[in-house]
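Predict the 3D structure for this chain.
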Amino acid sequence: MASLIDNYEQQYAVLTADITAKIGRIRIQSGGEKRAFIQDVDRQIEEAQELLEQMELEVRGMNGTARDRLRGRVESHRAELKRLTQEFQTAKQPREDTMEITVEESWDNNVTEDQRKRLLDSSERIERTGRTLQNGYRMALETEEIGSHVLKELHEQRETIQRSRGRVSCELCKYFEDANYAGEKNARKCEFIMYSTLFLLFSYEKPMQNWDGDLDCCRECFFGAFNRELF
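Done. Predicted structure below.
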């Protein structure tokens, strides 16, 4: 919420800087140019008042010392806007006998050329400052948008990595299951061969009794080779 108030204050600073510059122009302009500046300042003062109202709404929703501190800042901004409004009302009033004063008549009002030049220079500096603030605010918004886009891409990449990790885990589980199944299958084959061989050996034990102990030797050799192969 504080960051939202900061954004409002940045917009308010840009507006008041531009209002100050245009008030300076209104004092020395005449005719259609003066009327155009007056219309612009009227509109900008309304925008500044709306920003202050938004700030006040945000401050009301806060608690503790932050609310008191921000409320003081908003009151300071409101006092500044009131001062600018008074200056604007004075600047847009016709001079002397309600006739617009030309450049030549300004000499009669004790406004020298040097004073007019300094006033114009000050107004131009304020206007440049307002443009600089506007550019800075625009860059801040663009940076915030870029940061949001980068965070979104990182989140998508993280989800992709997690999905890939899940697929790899499933493939590994499947591989080990297949390996266990193959091992069990080979063990059953070995068991079948062992029982078949034992059956043959015991089936032909009587005809081979004349081999003088060769049958026992064959059995020991077979079981020794089987154990080495199996374990």
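The radius of gyration is 46 Å.
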